[in-house]
Amino acid sequence: MTHPSPMQIVRSFSDAMESMDFATGLQYVADDIEYINSPNTTVRGPSGMMAVLGPFFEPIEENEFVIRRQVSDGNIVVLERLDRHRVPQGWFELPVTGVYEVHDGKITYWREYFDFDTIVKEMQRVYGAAK
What is the tens place of the pLDDT at every residue in 68-85? Predict the structure, then answer.
């Protein structure tokens, strides 16, 4: 019996989050996961993670997480992605790189790297188009 690799666990987690099946996604994270969304946002646990992600995902109707590159070394996984999000006003895209650590079949660490200015510009472009 083979167990899922760290890459398989992270990809399954990413697939669930992409489809906004948060209940399934949270099955892949440890109770004490450390989630860092930006330099000033570090939370622990699934509830802390969803407190950060919930407001972001709320207006989103559909996601596409395009994996550009994926690398794993032991229990560390890195996914370079283009996250595409559809809101009522249209699609916006965010280049993101996620770094994950997996221990005992659960994600224990997840840090996202992105350019904040890109997020601001995309939000202004999409939400500004609705005026």
Answer: 999 999 999 999 999 999
List the domain range (segments joined by +) for residue 68: 6-128
Residue 129 pLDDT > 60? no
CATH assignment at residue 43:
3.10.450.50
> In angstroms, rounded to a whole number, what is the distance separating the alpha carbons of residues 22 and 4?
20
Q: Within 10 Å of residue 76's Cβ, how many Cβ atoms?
A: 14
In this structure, what are the phi and psi dihedrals at residue 78, rounded to the nearest 5 degrees?
-125, 125
Contacts of 81 (CB under 8 A, 6+ apart): 14, 65, 66, 67, 68, 95, 96, 97, 98
- What's the pTM value of the predicted model, to 2 decimals? 0.91
Number of domains composing the chain: 1
Q: Tokens 């399934």, residue?
A: 24
Output the CA angle 100-101-103, nearest 5 degrees. Answer: 145
On whether residue 45 sits in a domain, the answer given is yes
